[in-house]
Amino acid sequence: MDWKFTGDRPIWQQLTEQLTLRILKGQYPPGERLPAVRELAAQAGVNPNTMQRALAQLEADGLAVGSRTAGRTVTQDYGAIEAAAKARARAAVADCLRVLSELGYTPSDALVFVKEELEHE
Fold it and tell me: Is residue 120 packed enough to be buried (19+ CB in 10 Å), middle (13-18) or exposed (0-12)?
């Protein structure tokens, strides 16, 4: 899997976001065991403590469940997964509206742009 990092935020936050996206996209389906901390850290090229912090955040966000004997699994709480997906979608819309506003466009203009894009699909 491809891991990408930028210098504008802590790596653990970026790891959490990327792992969350993988859960939301079904790359890690509900109930599936997540790879071990060291394995994920090696894949991402980060310190295991950094990956541990990201996975702990996934647990705090309700997207992963930890067990001392079985490691971590993706939650089977479909409501939590759906809520996380909607939150991510709303954040994307808010970012889009912020950029359009900075460019001088109104929310009505944004709707026109969305409709135009949908017509071109």
Answer: exposed
